[in-house]
Amino acid sequence: MSYLSWQQLVVGYPNKKPLTNPFSGEITNPGIFAIIGQNGCGKSTLLKTWLGLIKPLNGTVLLNDAPIPTEHNISQGIAYVPQFHTVNRYFHISVYDFIKQGKGPSHTFKEQDITEINSLLNEWQLNGYGERSFHELSGGQKTRAMIIRAVLSKPKMLFLDEPLASLDSCCQQQLIETLETLTQENKVCVFIVDHHLENFNQFITKKIKFTRKHDQEISTIIM
C-alpha cells in the first residue's frame, strides 16, 4: 500500500506551458516530505494537483491507492493547510466554528471534543480568540487556526503550503515538532512546501526538489 503515487505526471494550467517535465514517484511510508525550489517553479501547483484541486495536464495520481477525487473535493482522511492569503478574507465565521469543521459536517460534538479544541487553542496561543471572526485574525493567527483544524481532523495525509512564512520562530519550531509527532506516533504522511526549512533539516524525511535551468521555463523534479 502507498500513501501517494504518481505516474508520468505533468502539472500546470490549461492552455499554458507545462510547469514540469513528466515525472513518477511513490511514497510508501509516513514522514515529512519537503517540496523545495525557486519561486514560480510549480511547487504549490504540484501540491494542489496531488490533492485533486487542479487537474494534471498529463499522467495519473493515486491517493491511498485510489484515484484522486473530483476537482475541488478533497478526499476523507486528508487535511490541507493553504497559504493564509488564499482563504476568503470575508469568511465570516467564528474561529471556534472554523476549527470545528475539522471534524466534518456530520460529527456530533461531545465534551471531549470541546476539551481537545480548547487545549489546541491554548497550545497555539489562540486562547480567547474562539468567538472572534476568522477573517479578523492576522496572517499568523489564520495559519495557526488552520493548523488546529487540520490536526483536529486526525488525517492520514497532511498537505501544507508555506505555513512557516507567517509564523514567528517559536511557532515555526512548534509546527515542525507537531508534524514530527504526527509522523512518528500517528503514522501521518506530511507534505510541506516552504522556503523556511533550512533550520529543520533534521526533521525532513526526504526532499522533493524542483530544478530549472536559466534558459528554460519547465522544471525537472528530483527525489
What keywords describe this structure?
single chain, 223 residues, alpha/beta, 6-stranded mixed β-sheet, 5 helices, 10 strands, 26% helix
Any chance you could write out the topology, listing elements then pairs?
Elements: E1 4-10, E2 23-27, E3 31-36, H1 43-51, E4 58-63, E5 66-67, E6 78-81, H2 95-100, H3 111-123, H4 139-152, E7 157-161, H5 169-185, E8 189-193, E9 206-211, E10 220-222
Parallel strand pairs: 3-8, 3-9, 6-7, 7-8
Antiparallel strand pairs: 1-2, 1-4, 4-5, 9-10
Description:
The chain is an alpha/beta fold and about 220 residues long. Helix content is about 25%, strand content about 20%. It has helices at about 45-50, 95-100, 110-125, 140-150, 170-185, and strands at about 5-10, 25, 30-35, 60-65, 65, 80, 155-160, 190-195, 205-210, 220. Strands 6-7-8-3-9-10 form a 6-stranded mixed β-sheet, with helices on both faces. A hairpin with an 8-residue loop joins β9 (about 205-210) and β10 (about 220). The model has no long low-confidence stretch (mean pLDDT about 90).
What's this entry about, in short?
The protein has 223 residues and is α/β, with parallel strands linked by helices. 26% of the residues lie in helices and 22% in strands.
Number of helices: 5
User: How confident is the prediction overall: mean pLDDT?
Assistant: 90
Total strands: 10
Binned, the helix content reads 25-40%
Low-confidence stretches: none
The best one-word shape is globular
